[in-house]
Design a protein that fits this description.
Layout: E1 20-27, E2 36-43, H1 53-64, E3 70-73, E4 79-81, E5 86-87, E6 89-91, E7 100-106, E8 109-123, E9 129-132, E10 152-153, E11 167-181, E12 187-203
Parallel strand pairs: 4-12
Antiparallel strand pairs: 1-2, 3-6, 5-10, 7-8, 8-9, 8-11, 11-12
């Protein structure tokens, strides 16, 4: 443990001494792969289990409090029309898009981790999925009826028959985490996902003669 607990701490199990140290072990074998943390006392420099830097990197990610995409479009309010290009995009922040960087330390191992969203899979609620490599392009009136150059979808059926008369859009972000041990040590990468949802109403354009 870093720092070591004070001499009177229960972590020492009555075995405190200048040649001993308290170690912490974290194993992801709890419910839903939750970490279970235990401690033990051993002589300093003893043959103790090595700290897995991936677990330390995951601790760093937990500190980041990463969230699902902050959906800007489609908006829950208002109504869209079938056959009309829909532009999808998200607001960017450290917790909803990245980059987000921090460090964590366990057992004398310090890991620096940086997380950022590398793709967003949009499940549109009509059975289709659109995967976009970036945050999408913000729509302005000057674009008119053009399709989004980066992230868009066109509905072909109304949402009238769906619950509440709306499709439920789910945006699933893939966060890529790059980590490095002790400024120049071992490196690695893993991914995590976070998601957000937004209801969207799709209607028909009625032509009046």
């Amino acid at each position: 443990m870093d720092p070591q607990p004070p001499p009177a701490s229960m972590y020492w199990e009555g075995k405190s001494g200048k040649n001993s140290a308290v170690y912490e072990r974290s194993c992801r074998n709890g419910p839903d792969v939750a970490p279970i943390i235990s401690t033990f006392v051993a002589d300093a420099g003893a043959n103790v289990p090595a700290v897995d830097p991936v677990l330390v990197a995951q601790q760093a990610v937990a500190q980041m409090k990463l969230a699902g995409p902050d959906i800007a479009s489609p908006r829950p309010a208002g109504r869209y029309a079938i056959g009309m290009p829909m532009w999808m995009w998200v607001h960017k922040s450290a917790t909803t898009y990245g980059p987000n960087a921090t460090t964590a330390t366990a057992g004398g191992v310090t890991v620096a981790a940086t997380a950022k969203v590398t793709k967003i899979a949009w499940q549109m609620g009509d059975g289709s999925t659109v995967t976009c490599a970036g945050p999408g392009t913000t729509y302005t009136a000057s674009y008119g009826m053009r399709k989004s150059p980066t992230c868009g979808h066109t509905y072909t059926r109304t949402s009238a028959a769906r619950k509440g008369g709306k499709y439920l859009v789910t945006a699933i972000a893939t966060w890529t985490v790059d980590w490095q041990v002790n400024e120049g040590g071992e490196t690695g990468q893993f991914t995590e996902t976070r998601q957000s949802q937004a209801p969207v109403a799709i209607g028909e354009v009625q032509v009046v003669k």
